[in-house]
Amino acid sequence: MWKLLSVFVVVFMLAVPPLIPAWTPGAILVTCLLEPLCLAVVIACWSERLAVPSLRVAAGVVALIYVLAAVDQIRAAASSRRPIIGGPTPIVGLLVVGVPAALFAVRGMPRKWAEDLESIGGGFEDDDLDEDDPDEDGADD
Q1: pTM score, two decimals?
Q2: Which stretches within 47-134 are classed as H helix?
Q3: Residue 106: count of CB within 10 angstroms of its CB
Q4: 51 within 8 A of 122, measured Cβ to Cβ
Q5: d(C-alpha 30, C-alpha 40), whole Å
Q6: Per residue in 90-129, pLDDT tens?
Q7: Out of 7, 81, 93, 122, which residue is the most buried by the measure of CB atoms under 10 Å away?
Q8: How far apart are CA 21 and CA 4, in angstroms?
Q9: If you ran DSSP here, which 8-state letter would residue 127 be given?
């Protein structure tokens, strides 16, 4: 299943650049953020050993995208220009998606989550887990 997903992601990676009508600075930025994100997902689909580190890179890219969208929203509000994305959506998205993605990018997967994934067939090895997880004493919350 994961390998099939990776095929679609590779096709998407290859199809996006030729479909961009004009290479503006915004299009270049989006492409420069989208391509590493897709590559990290493909690596995670094919390598169990590199799954967690590559997904951490992907989470970092997602967090960066939400930070840039929130900054654009704040700058647009201050200068009375039209933001790229309307409404309070980027700021809410930063709080709901961007902050957890940044935490995962910095801290990694908590041991309890990885153990739960392994119990349902996720296939993570012990060496993929972070050593600095506060839940590693096995205490149930």
Answers
A1: 0.66
A2: 51-79, 89-93, 99-107, 111-119
A3: 11
A4: no
A5: 16
A6: 888 888 888 888 988 888 766 666 666 566 555 545 444 4
A7: 93
A8: 29
A9: G
